[in-house]
Amino acid sequence: MDELRDKIFELKAKRNAVLLAHNYQREEVQAIADFTGDSLELSRRAATMDCDVIVFCGVNFMAESASILSPDKTVLLPATEANCPMADMVTVDTPRELRMNFPGYNEVTYEFPEDFTLRDMKRRYPGVPVVSYVNTTAAVKAESDYCCTSSNAVKLVNAIDSDRVICVPDRNLAAWIAANTKKEIITWDGFCHVHDRVRPSDVDAARAEHQGALFVAHPECRLEICQMADHVTSTSGMLRFCRESDAREFIIGTETGLLYRLRLENPHKKFHPLRSDMVCPNMKRTTLRTILFALENNTKVIKVPEEIRVPAKRALDRMLEIG
Ligand code: 13P
Ligand code: SF4
Q1: How far apart are CA 255 and CA 241, in angstroms?
Q2: Fewest Cβ atoms nearer than 10 Å: which of 226, 237, 244, 248?
Q3: Whose CA is nearest to atom 6 of ligand 2?
Q4: Is 122 exposed, middle or buried (0-12, 13-18, 19+ CB in 10 A)?
Q5: Distance 150 CA to ligand 1 centre (A)
Q6: Overall pTM surpassing 0.85 (yes/no)
Q7: Which domains does the chain carry?
Q8: If you measure from the C-alpha of residue 255 to the centroid of ligand 1, how many angstroms do you get, rounded to a whole number?
């Protein structure tokens, strides 16, 4: 492990590279990252990093956002197969997969009732602005008016000059926005399989086991779960909330990778996963070995074509201005 780390540091220096890691990454990856954060923080960093190479330890759409915001830099995605299944639930104009399974995740299969594209949605609601969650492909962002992340979604929707807004692809985030705005939210039926499977009985069981602990939920959980929480926020919002709270014990309703930093930054507090199987297999594909291999061999370079990058950047820039 030490040897791998040393080689990564050596190559990073040689290539003037920085390592950005999402809060769900493996512990050993977060430990060597130059910056760890939620989707909004990582987008901001990607736009302002002074480097030649960005090694993006996360999933495909995040590396695409880095490439959209920093087109002159080489963006590497070390885990070549790291996709976000939720991002793939909305397509621009080709029919989406109607049957999805989530390999490595108890072989869950989901069948969508109809194939429906973003352009179909826009035709159905002409003139209604589209807000795409940052968990979308670059092509979907290019077809959207705004992007949002879990930490700025409500604020962003409230700032839009329209009474109706289309939100894609997460039906749970959309439900959370709808519960916190006066605007009409037109919802897509995508979801994150890691968060969507949580049920009220999981919260009841965790609260019974850890009495007095505060429960924090990610807005990718179902609305009924968010309504049971003491606080609902993004991953970095959870880090802030737990740091600033006087409470000593917390139940964490998101991917378990966040526990690493929570425990590191708050050694005197206790953190419990809401469910120990809230693990995103795609986020765990990045390892020290794949990082080293990417730096040595330039796999996999993420480059968004200009005709998609320019309109996608407009949607991301609007988010960064408002957020
Ligand atoms: P945030 O880190 O922005 O809360 O996003 C969570 C997520 O699911 C990223 O894939
Ligand atoms: Fe996608 Fe969910 Fe994994 Fe995030 S945790 S990358 S939303 S599948």
Answers
A1: 16
A2: 244
A3: 84
A4: middle
A5: 7
A6: yes
A7: 2-82+283-305 (3.40.50.10800), 87-194 (3.40.50.10800), 198-273 (3.40.50.10800)
A8: 9
